[in-house]
Amino acid sequence: MAGLHEECGVFGIWSESNLQASHSIYYGLLALQHRGQEAAGIAVCNTFGEKGNVSYYKNLGLVSEVFDELTLNKNEGNIGIGHVRYSTTGDCNIENTQPLVYNYVKGTLALVHNGNIVNTAALKQELYDEGTVFRATTDSEVVACLIAKLRAKSSSIEEAVKKAATKLIGGYALLIMSPRKIVAVRDPWGLKPLCLGKRGNDYFFASENCAFNAVGAEFIRDIKPGEIVTISKKGLTSDFTFEADKQAHCIFEYIYFARLDSKIDGISVYKSRFDGGRALARSFPVEADLVTGVPESGITAAYGYSFEAKIPFALAFHKNSYIGRSFIKPTQEEREAAVHMKLNVLEDVVRDKRIVLIDDSIVRGTTIKNLITMLRNAGAKEIHVRISSPPFLYPCYYGTDVPDNTELIANNYSTESIRKMIGADSLGYMKLEDIGSLVGDLPVCKACFDGNYPTPVEQN
Amino acid sequence: MAGLHEECGVFGIWSESNLQASHSIYYGLLALQHRGQEAAGIAVCNTFGEKGNVSYYKNLGLVSEVFDELTLNKNEGNIGIGHVRYSTTGDCNIENTQPLVYNYVKGTLALVHNGNIVNTAALKQELYDEGTVFRATTDSEVVACLIAKLRAKSSSIEEAVKKAATKLIGGYALLIMSPRKIVAVRDPWGLKPLCLGKRGNDYFFASENCAFNAVGAEFIRDIKPGEIVTISKKGLTSDFTFEADKQAHCIFEYIYFARLDSKIDGISVYKSRFDGGRALARSFPVEADLVTGVPESGITAAYGYSFEAKIPFALAFHKNSYIGRSFIKPTQEEREAAVHMKLNVLEDVVRDKRIVLIDDSIVRGTTIKNLITMLRNAGAKEIHVRISSPPFLYPCYYGTDVPDNTELIANNYSTESIRKMIGADSLGYMKLEDIGSLVGDLPVCKACFDGNYPTPVEQN
Amino acid sequence: MAGLHEECGVFGIWSESNLQASHSIYYGLLALQHRGQEAAGIAVCNTFGEKGNVSYYKNLGLVSEVFDELTLNKNEGNIGIGHVRYSTTGDCNIENTQPLVYNYVKGTLALVHNGNIVNTAALKQELYDEGTVFRATTDSEVVACLIAKLRAKSSSIEEAVKKAATKLIGGYALLIMSPRKIVAVRDPWGLKPLCLGKRGNDYFFASENCAFNAVGAEFIRDIKPGEIVTISKKGLTSDFTFEADKQAHCIFEYIYFARLDSKIDGISVYKSRFDGGRALARSFPVEADLVTGVPESGITAAYGYSFEAKIPFALAFHKNSYIGRSFIKPTQEEREAAVHMKLNVLEDVVRDKRIVLIDDSIVRGTTIKNLITMLRNAGAKEIHVRISSPPFLYPCYYGTDVPDNTELIANNYSTESIRKMIGADSLGYMKLEDIGSLVGDLPVCKACFDGNYPTPVEQN
Amino acid sequence: MAGLHEECGVFGIWSESNLQASHSIYYGLLALQHRGQEAAGIAVCNTFGEKGNVSYYKNLGLVSEVFDELTLNKNEGNIGIGHVRYSTTGDCNIENTQPLVYNYVKGTLALVHNGNIVNTAALKQELYDEGTVFRATTDSEVVACLIAKLRAKSSSIEEAVKKAATKLIGGYALLIMSPRKIVAVRDPWGLKPLCLGKRGNDYFFASENCAFNAVGAEFIRDIKPGEIVTISKKGLTSDFTFEADKQAHCIFEYIYFARLDSKIDGISVYKSRFDGGRALARSFPVEADLVTGVPESGITAAYGYSFEAKIPFALAFHKNSYIGRSFIKPTQEEREAAVHMKLNVLEDVVRDKRIVLIDDSIVRGTTIKNLITMLRNAGAKEIHVRISSPPFLYPCYYGTDVPDNTELIANNYSTESIRKMIGADSLGYMKLEDIGSLVGDLPVCKACFDGNYPTPVEQN
Known about the structure:
Radius of gyration of chain A: 23 Å
Largest interface: A-B, 61 and 62 residues
Strand order of the largest sheet of chain A: 3-2-4-1-10-9-11
Oligomer: homotetramer
Structural class of chain A: alpha+beta
Shape of chain A: elongated
Largest sheet of chain A: 7 strands, antiparallel
Number of helices of chain A: 17
Strand content of chain A: 25-35%
């Protein structure tokens, strides 16, 4: 999928004894790198120190670029939180990187956040009017300042978090470190994922359980929507902010964001995508010689389609994995030549073949159109496009960075028009009623497809 | 495949008019990055300048790390050569990066080399005795100095290259730029690949034709074993160094080195690997629930095995593509936890399943053993390992960086012993007589499997 | 002087038309670099933009290391403030660099600060109790948050600054940019310097007037103690915070901090040091062959001593100006050898000579002792040390980074004992009553010599 | 002096036991940094290793930028050579940095060079014709290849050096390391300086003896013109290349290049400059209120003038030592403002004064003209310029980077015209016959003043 991005991943550790928390967080963040590649950061605390000695490091770049061994070793502590970021709100600059770390009345407050708060503007104005200053331009800083403010009138950090949570509308998974505690909270709709793991006596939090494998921890359970978990020397306690009238887990975690080997709210991501491909095959069957997928986003659904349709899977595109972020974009003149740079057709595979081509979504339509042209040039006879999600019709307010409505091709054209524009022989989008094939009975937010938002939505 | 590396890729361009040769070489090298990730370099010449103004830039790192737009633009020319390097002989340092660029009696000589010269030591001693100095520690510099020396007594650079080539034993694909000409030469056994492409009036050379797509050029033909191609303002001419008594194309280009979407000496790499998987299925059939491959090296053969055996393919491992070179290695203590860092099992896929696991080779056996353990821990019922190449028994003298005999597990243990050591339920290596399933009638060097070297082999 | 450091320099510009404010600030900061070498930063605002578009850049390092042309050009504006920092309070990290830049109720607030606030702890606790968070660990951030808080209840930024100033005890020169105004304020005791310059219609602020020459501006006048100057589109206005009962300009600006070519509160720095040397010659005359100074801190006073005593000046030490911050310190073993690295004796100059050696102060005594040993080893016959300031006996609370009392040699030993310890033939400190020779009638703070602090001093 | 540059400094160490040669060379090069600021490099050899294990590191930049502790420690050896470079011939690029290090018939050859070879072109052509290739564009590489070539037909490295030296015309100080020996050679005219030092059993070579102090070594003696010194396990031996008919030590070492605290061929650099100032005072006396010098190049001569003329010295300009190489040059518009950036007038010192202003030379005349304007603007009444060297009239072929004749103001105008052009009230250059006041009877090359070159001079 080109043009869609997830904003963040969070990871946390509470250890009773191991002072190398930063190392565990490093490996955890590496496992969550797919959730954000613009910045990374780690804050740790040595709870044995007299005052709870917090240190942190963060910067723009990939986890492996931001951290080296020296930096990890310098930041010594037994508890800590980490963050990988893709910017949805707030520019890509150093002030907006996380963990956000503040000195406040009770010592040091550190916070990481995945998600998007819908009522940020109103909350921010309230704080402004009381004389608050902000350094960053993110909703995350508003949350942090709100918690700090409420802490002054609360008996504990978890109480302050609870008070703050009742004011927040939107999707969020938060980890807060206040020097000797870690508090985790998940929005009451369950929009954003957050789960709990364990290794010996050490506890872990992560956006996805694939990160637990990276540190040798075991998955315990998902944090429940609206749940606040607090870990301190006294152990783990759990509380609930408030009950939302409905749960609405983000469907895009399954379709696109999450790692294949994760399991979120009981559903395996790989299986969900594979089954989505099977559903597509049932709803939009076609006679063909081979099934293929757009690497990497369409491959798993293609396996499922192939399985269900009993048409062999074959790789039609080679993806150059060395085209990194620092890659020099071709000029307009070089463009045509360079279309084969990232993805190149395996000509012997596709020549004279009838092909089912799977991708997980169409945003603007330019990418799929290019790929179809490449297949035709390589001699493909028929190209039947199958998309493993319904058409994208509504904006997301919870942290998924979707282009403007005006750029969404499905918003402006019928499926038949799109088929013609991209040059496919047939085109099928997953049916809205087939969403269940992905996630079973799990209540999901699929507002981007049907416009039914689980929360009020601020207009600004 | 862990532990095997290719040494280099070369790319060249001759344009009559376009002064942005460095840009084309950049994209060409990006497409060849899989052939070497330690260093990259580009040398170009503006043949319109009075003296043939050569400039170059090279450094340790990936192509996208070494070059930025400024550097490309500063190195302006209409012809040029480029190189990506993995060090087989010579340390990984800046002196050993290529293109090698020298001032010599006729102006500037630039050279890039893929391969390994067997009789380097003898050639070097000759040059030493005449007072020659070397800066690098590579066989490539010996070749360059030899050509420069012979040029003083020859009427043209191509004549000097021819004289030099008659002295070289081993595998080589060379591009030589001497200011206003580009000379390409491929060893007479055809050990190393080299091919010719065209875009309008511009000619291109590349180790693999996948690089032509990256610059919008068309594949013309492979350079023939022993062929010397010279391009100058007068056009393209072809000559032959000498006829080898036999051709011996490196089998490992098909098994491991080359890109899936390349075609070398008429054989599609993807098809070769796919068919290898099919042959494996015929020779070593087994009842199983799913076929899977070790990412990325075993995936294509797994598709072939699945196709032939009519057992569904499924992804059993997720590969974290963000584990780069700068990744901080886990300490001994963290090791066990970190085994899941690079590859993580998709537990829902493998639980209670009988699995065929394909990889392209076993070098030391440690990687496959770890993967089998991971599968067992995730609940796999049976694991049948199939290797899409025969056992590795002999060293390679032509540029493939194979570990010492003593480290090669196949050299020291029987297949049954290896099966036990790695913990598989069954183990099958491709049969030597099935090599034909990969490459048909193409005469190949498979000395690493059978010890039959196509050239004399120096002992030192 | 080894061991004493100034904390900061500030520079500001208000231009009606020139959008290259960042360039002027860059040159101004270069001229003030001697006041702080740990970090530098610039914030500018384009007041023609609809919202007052503030941008900024800051980092650890020298001005010439932090900024390049690209960065200056990217930060476009017609007004702006800049800062060079040496850390007295707060660690040397990126959070503590200045300008501090915040979003607040009225847009963007930027602030730079030279000095030290004595009652920081009390002010901070007040803010903490209201739920304020801090990112930095500096008194400067407390000042900024205080101003922002007060702004919410004030009719203008200058009114908020005035309210804040009445609460601040200590030395400060502040520049505040709030998007379309620049407000400058100097503490009511005049402890820290701040002056006003002009170039055409553009106004400038700087810690020292030497910075005006660097941008072609003319010195207008010193900002008066307690004065608040506000510049906006409506022009320049002046107000006073409150009258202090006494003025107390920091004597160390003349003795050590300020640049030779600056003039502060009417007194030329060069002349002050030169006259200090003359006073020393009158108070502690001695027969000698030559007068010399410790480079650079003692050279000017040595010129004065030489002039008054009619003993020729000669250079006895060569200073290696290439020993930068990144210089690798010699190991203990290399230490003895390396004592000549920074300063080396000109042996032919000092052999068999009776020498008057001038420095501006003695902190721990180790440096002067080493120099005397070097002179003796080079054959000097007599060494008479003269110090152009009285002995250091009391800590500074206003921003001068003096070592602990316990480390101050003058606090622990008599002059005669010190003479013996350093190995001098005679030793004379400037007499307290000779301070007037430096600054005439100007009321100065010389609390570091006599313990008479002009303000209450917080105990913590 | 603006516009004149020295090309290089060399440093070497032979230790019997200390494996930290790289550390000593580092400190030695720091002391010689004034001789070249564009690049630095160190090559060392561990002679206890079986083969004489040579390693090296070099790069563009200052010594303190090029080396860090890690790099020094990684390059372990007991003998070694180092270089700081300013490029006179050859561009400023990495290939031209030194030590030049080659593998050759006898192992590894490393070489550092200060000076310039007049007959490079002829020597290079000879080597070209025999098929030699060059990577760099410097005369130093020609010398190195010549030595390597001759080594093949010689019984020892020192014999090869001697044979090479008889072919070299020009100024040179060379250190050659061939793995277990260090050979030092100085040109037979003594144009370039080179001296020998000792610390315990360790020997040192350096361009100037000030470097010995930096490593705690003692100065033994200057290497004699034409002398070849070889140090090996067997001790130190000395030989002579050939006798030149005359010695001709470069006068500019005393006037400008060398450090104040060095002593070259028996003459103290500080004393030489001081005495030059005295001679100027005798030859061009004037009534004035103060004597001052252009920092730093004119200060020492100003001390001498002041001493002889009995007119007090005073500092008229403050030099900003933070204006480094990375300083962003002011634009044309900012130029006028920025003239005070590097040097700023101390207005109180010069107002209404009659001033003698000393500098060591005038190249193009622009700098001195600016300074005079600044002094006038600050209120100086009279300005009498005195130059402590004769007018520059002829090019230097031995390594001093003088601008083209056409740019040398003295070549194109009379002294009276120059006086008018720069706006001085009077102007006096040191008389040619007063050169003796600088260096006594020492035979010097002063061809830049009188055109009498000590060697044949190649025309190309």
